[in-house]
């Protein structure tokens, strides 16, 4: 790939650069960026950064990376830069260097792009000029194609020049750095002016960026392709500006004279005299390439330039004559294909803008015209919102009309002007404006004079007139309103509905329907209002009236039928109704969008995606469809597709419409997508950007959601302080909304944050606050979730009774709402209780059933939990090999999913199990791998377990470092506390410390251990008794040994097969030997040796040695070790 224009010998007053850049830090060859890109060579440095050739180690392919100059980097510029990169990723064309992605590594910010093997056009021209006419034509065509694509996306290069154009050996061109100047923002443009030769004079003078900036550069590049040089001789920027305004007369060789007019038009000193679009440039080229017009080209082009200049100075296009001839042309061009029509807000002059007139009538016209199968209507509500977002005020000039047509993808616009011509008299003109090429053609549909109160009734004819003018026929022939209905009254109702004043609209409708009960659309509207207010008993009869009075196959009848089906929760029926409507009205996007929403509600995501794609196919700037497509894609698991495609297009649409609300929603959705992809820094960045936009438009609901999302990322990153602060801010923001559901959600999230940190009482308080709110709501699933959360905290606090009560209630609610996932989670939680109490068989059956159901439902997380606990049960029952393999697989799966908490939990299991079977190396490696995650997770209970396993590893290796420090067990899970206490008992038995120190440690642990519910933690109780037995044996305390042994034997029988039972047999042998019962001692010893031997057969040699060596440290005055070594 080529490089930016920065010559080694550039001087500060030259026209190459207007400012010297300081010496730039460059990357070392063979360095690796973000663990993926290996730097191969520096290609060059320029205005915005340095370009390197690099190897993508993941894809094994060459890429170009552009590293941004450090002085261009700031929080604001980076935020803008990332947004623009999303837009640039849309540019996929053979003649454009494709931008891949933005990355950040330490203080290095860079983007990756296609690697092009070739030269810059600047260097290539020096070697190959002059060029043949055919080659110039080919290069021009390639440039035009690339610029057409970028213009259609609303992207300007702003720095187009031969140095930024690459060419390969096949003479294919590639424009590089598209949009980079825009992406970098003001910081770059204000510091470095760039190469001025290819910039128009108005830009050099004032920094004004006209839409023809790239067209101007194209004209100069075309000149350079032909002549091999730029047309200017100036030595300073002031002289250059003067030359540009003087516009030197072109004197091209005769074989290139066909480009005279093109270059002249494109490089005109007045931006209003240049072609307005690439399409006009292409048209100009085509005209001048026609052989029969070759001799007329100069005069014709000159005349064209004059016309363009005049049009530019005047600043508007002149409508064609509003005559019957014009009307005839419109009808004549009406074809069978679908047409699209935007209903513009009415223009009123000299009269007060009464809502029924400015809002109600346009809505009426929109509704009436929506019954045509060959017409796509962009109704008044959307057109008004578009004008408001763009800041456009009526009346609209041609340029703004064309923008509206482009944004709505409309071929026609309906514009109505109402002008006061006297105290009570008004002139009304209804015009149909057609977009023809790059211009507009206007035709009068209806023109009349009327009193204000009579305007509405006359408008009853407008929908049919428009339909006739377009050569269309509606499903139900448009007829006059029922006798006695005032269109003014209907318009007032439409206005009230539009602004959400349902109570006033309902009152007006009831009065209207009382006088004219046969008005079907009125009954439909009344039914919809009653349903929206939750008055189902009133909504149903109104909708039945709409069915009764509407005609067969009418849109009103279908909509009333669908509303009734939705009220009865017959989603399938409503879907069928909408589909029948769309068979007759395939271009009714409002109905299609509603259908997509129903598919989403049913989680029929493929069907929803199909409907939404149908919408954007004909309306690529639809304000919601791309956004909804992105959400559907994320829900389907195609998150990367959402990031690379749908969200990019949604963001572009939001920017085009200047819709800050939508932009905030899309940025938040980017955050959701990156969150799911595990790219937490990107997720955080986009959530924060979305929050800024949502605050700016005072979207309280969106602000609460963004703060909640930010909290989720902070929590995963282990920054619990920020997570909690975000949620508390969200709670405060939510107060003004009086949203009980969200309030409960936020308390629930605060509970999760507290639980993850090990603040269990605090978590319990938050979960109970959430439960208290949810029990008053009509949502059984939310009740189930809160009951499950409260139960789990009681479980962690070792309150078996409360945990069981709440879990049983949670299961009942999950079953009530038919949520198998919730039931599985509760069953898995309650199985933990059974396992802790030593009810292995019951726990095993519960986890087996959970695993089977999880796999049937494709529930990955629930399946992982079931597999892990089944492995634990197998390990406890003396099966060492397969559980460790299962746990390794689970750990890797969680790592791929970037589930930090899960990785920590099950990696700690793996470290412990490896340690217990003598695999000290693996245990050490797992603990070291865990270290950064422990810092990130910041859970006090898990950190205590981690520290305990580290200390136990040192103890087993004989490297214990002195008496353990006293640790507070407040706000620590029972498991973490008991693990720590078991280690203290091990220290008292296995360490080389003094007897006095070991006695002190044992007594401290013994006191603390009694504080726990030992019936709920039988395995810890059994381990404590076994260790106590060896402690008393070492101290020859036969009485305590006997008491401990009796309790141990009783408890061991209750838990069934247990891999540590060999230690119980050994303690029996020691006890019998001290009582001179040689036969019993020998039998118990043989049983212990047999069990150990069976365990050792599963272990490699080194682990066997570690395992045997450790047994010798429990007790030294029996012959156990001799028997083991004999074996």
Automatic annotation (TrEMBL):
The record's CDD domains line, in alphabetical order, gives: STKc_PknB_like (cd14014)
**What SUPFAM superfamilies does UniProt report for this protein, alphabetically?**
Protein kinase-like (PK-like), TPR-like
According to the lineage, what is the superkingdom?
A: Bacteria
| Molecular function, one GO term | protein serine/threonine kinase activity
- Report which reactions are catalysed by this protein: L-seryl-[protein] + ATP = O-phospho-L-seryl-[protein] + ADP + H(+); L-threonyl-[protein] + ATP = O-phospho-L-threonyl-[protein] + ADP + H(+)
What keywords are annotated for this sequence in UniProt? Answer: ATP-binding, Kinase, Membrane, Nucleotide-binding, Serine/threonine-protein kinase, Transferase, Transmembrane, Transmembrane helix
Where, by residue number, does the polypeptide cross the bilayer? Answer: 299-319
Name any one Pfam family assigned in the record: TPR_12
Q: Does the keyword Protein biosynthesis apply?
A: no
Q: Which residues form the Protein kinase domain?
A: 37-308
Q: What class of enzyme is it?
A: transferase
Q: Could you give a single Gene Ontology term from the biological process aspect?
A: signal transduction
Q: What is its EC number?
A: 2.7.11.1
InterPro entries documented for this protein: Kinase-like_dom_sf (IPR011009), Prot_kinase_dom (IPR000719), Ser/Thr_kinase_AS (IPR008271), TPR-like_helical_dom_sf (IPR011990), TPR_rpt (IPR019734)
Under which name does UniProt file this protein?
non-specific serine/threonine protein kinase
Give the species: Kangiella spongicola
């Amino acid at each position: 790939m080529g490089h930016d224009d920065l010559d080694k010998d550039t001087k500060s007053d030259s026209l190459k650069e207007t400012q010297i850049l300081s010496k730039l830090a460059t990357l070392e060859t063979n360095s690796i960026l973000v663990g993926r890109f290996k730097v191969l060579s520096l290609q060059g440095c320029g205005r915005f950064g340095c370009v390197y050739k690099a190897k993508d180690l993941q894809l094994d392919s060459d890429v170009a990376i552009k590293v941004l100059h450090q002085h261009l980097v700031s929080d604001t510029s980076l935020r803008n830069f990332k947004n623009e990169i999303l837009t640039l990723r849309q540019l996929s064309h053979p003649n454009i260097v494709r931008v891949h992605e933005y990355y950040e590594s330490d203080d290095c910010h860079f983007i990756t792009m296609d690697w092009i093997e070739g030269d810059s056009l600047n260097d290539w021209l020096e070697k190959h000029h002059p060029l043949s006419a055919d080659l110039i034509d080919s290069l021009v065509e390639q440039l035009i194609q690339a610029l057409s694509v970028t213009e259609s996306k609303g992207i300007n290069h702003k720095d187009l020049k031969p140095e930024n154009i690459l060419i390969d050996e096949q003479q294919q061109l590639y424009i590089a750095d598209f949009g980079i100047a825009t992406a970098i923002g003001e910081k770059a443009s204000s510091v470095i002016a760039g190469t001025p030769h290819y910039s128009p004079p108005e830009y050099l003078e004032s920094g004004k960026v006209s839409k023809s900036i790239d067209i101007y550069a194209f004209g100069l590049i075309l000149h350079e392709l032909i002549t091999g040089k730029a047309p200017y001789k100036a030595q300073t920027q002031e002289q250059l500006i003067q030359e540009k305004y003087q516009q030197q007369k072109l004197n091209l060789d005769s074989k290139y004279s066909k480009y005279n007019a093109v270059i002249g038009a494109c490089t005109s000193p007045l931006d209003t005299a240049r072609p307005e679009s690439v399409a006009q440039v292409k048209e100009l080229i085509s005209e001048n390439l026609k052989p029969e017009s070759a001799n007329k080209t100069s005069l014709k082009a000159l005349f064209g330039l004059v016309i363009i200049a005049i049009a530019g100075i005047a600043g508007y296009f002149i409508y064609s004559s509003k005559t019957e001839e014009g009307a005839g042309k419109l009808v004549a061009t009406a074809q069978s294909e679908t047409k699209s029509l935007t209903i513009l807000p009415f223009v009123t002059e000299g009269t007060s803008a009464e809502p029924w007139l400015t809002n109600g009538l346009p809505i009426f016209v929109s509704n009436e015209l929506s019954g045509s199968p060959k017409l796509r209507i962009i109704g008044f509500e959307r057109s008004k919102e578009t004008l408001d977002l763009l800041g456009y005020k009526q009346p609209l000039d041609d340029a703004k009309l064309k923008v509206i047509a482009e944004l709505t993808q409309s071929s026609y616009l309906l514009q109505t002007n109402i002008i006061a011509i006297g105290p009570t008299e008004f002139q009304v003109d209804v015009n149909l404006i057609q977009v023809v090429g790059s211009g507009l053609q206007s035709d009068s549909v209806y023109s009349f004079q009327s009193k204000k109160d009579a305007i509405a009734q006359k408008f009853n004819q407008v929908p049919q007139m428009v339909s006739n003018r377009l050569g269309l026929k509606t499903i139900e022939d448009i007829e006059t309103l029922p006798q006695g209905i005032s269109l003014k009254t209907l318009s007032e109702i439409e206005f009230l509905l539009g602004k959400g004043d349902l109570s006033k609209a309902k009152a007006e409708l009831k009065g209207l329907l009382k006088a004219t009960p046969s008005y079907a659309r009125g009954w439909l509207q009344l039914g919809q209002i009653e349903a929206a207010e939750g008055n189902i008993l009133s909504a149903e009869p109104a909708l039945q009236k709409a069915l009764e009075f509407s005609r067969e196959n009418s849109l009103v009848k279908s909509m009333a039928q669908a509303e009734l089906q939705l009220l009865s929760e017959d989603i399938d029926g409503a879907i069928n109704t909408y589909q029948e409507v769309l068979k007759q009205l395939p271009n009714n996007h409002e109905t299609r969008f509603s259908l997509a929403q129903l598919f989403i509600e049913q989680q029929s995501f493929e069907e929803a995606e199909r409907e939404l794609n149908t919408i954007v196919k004909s309306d690529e700037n639809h304000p919601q469809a791309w956004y909804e497509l992105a959400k559907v894609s994320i829900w389907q698991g195609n998150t990367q597709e959402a990031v690379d495609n749908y969200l990019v297009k949604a963001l572009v649409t939001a920017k085009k419409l200047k819709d800050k609300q939508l932009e905030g929603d899309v940025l938040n959705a980017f955050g959701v997508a990156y969150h799911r992809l595990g790219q937490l820094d990107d997720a955080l960045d986009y959530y924060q950007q979305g929050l800024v936009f949502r605050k700016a438009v005072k979207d309280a609901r969106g602000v609460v959601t963004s703060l909640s999302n930010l909290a989720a990322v902070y929590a995963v990153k282990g920054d619990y302080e920020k997570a909690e602060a975000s949620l508390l801010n969200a709670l405060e923001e939510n107060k003004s909304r009086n949203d009980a559901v969200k309030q409960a959600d936020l308390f629930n999230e605060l509970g999760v944050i507290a639980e993850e940190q090990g603040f269990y009482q605090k978590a319990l308080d938050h979960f109970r606050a959430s439960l208290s709110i949810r029990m008053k709501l009509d949502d059984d699933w939310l009740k189930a979730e809160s009951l499950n959360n409260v139960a789990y905290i009681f479980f962690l606090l070792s309150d078996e009774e409360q945990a069981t009560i709440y879990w049983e209630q949670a299961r009942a609610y999950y079953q009530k709402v038919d949520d198998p996932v919730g039931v599985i989670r509760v069953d898995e939680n309650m199985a933990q209780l059974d396992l802790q109490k030593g009810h292995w068989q019951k726990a095993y059956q519960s986890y087996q059933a959970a695993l089977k159901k999880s796999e049937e439902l494709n529930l990955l997380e629930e399946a992982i939990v079931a597999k892990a606990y089944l492995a634990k049960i197998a390990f406890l029952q003396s099966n060492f090999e397969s559980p460790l393999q299962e746990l390794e697989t689970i750990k890797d799966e969680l790592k791929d999913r970037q589930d930090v908490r899960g990785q920590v939990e099950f990696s700690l299991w793996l470290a412990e199990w490896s340690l217990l079977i003598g695999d000290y190396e693996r245990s050490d490696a797992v603990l070291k791998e865990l270290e950064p995650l422990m810092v990130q997770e910041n859970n006090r209970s898990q950190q205590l377990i981690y520290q305990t396993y580290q200390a136990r590893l040192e103890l087993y290796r004989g490297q214990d470092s002195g008496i353990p420090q006293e640790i507070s067990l407040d706000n620590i899970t029972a498991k973490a506390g008991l693990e720590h206490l078991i280690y203290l008992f091990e220290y008292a038995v296995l360490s080389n410390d003094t007897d006095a120190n070991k006695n002190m440690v044992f007594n401290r642990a013994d006191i603390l251990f009694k504080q726990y519910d030992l019936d709920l933690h039988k395995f810890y109780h059994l381990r404590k008794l076994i260790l106590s037995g060896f402690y008393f044996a070492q101290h020859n305390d036969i009485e305590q040994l006997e008491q401990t042994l009796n309790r141990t034997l009783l408890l061991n029988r209750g838990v069934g097969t247990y891999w540590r039972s060999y230690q119980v047999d050994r303690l029996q042998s020691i006890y019998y030997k001290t009582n001179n019962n040689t036969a019993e001692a020998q039998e118990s010893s043989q049983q212990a040796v047999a069990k150990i031997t069976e365990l050792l057969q599963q272990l490699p040699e080194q682990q066997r040695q570690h395992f045997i060596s450790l047994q010798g440290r429990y007790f030294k005055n029996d012959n156990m070790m001799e028997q083991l070594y004999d074996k």
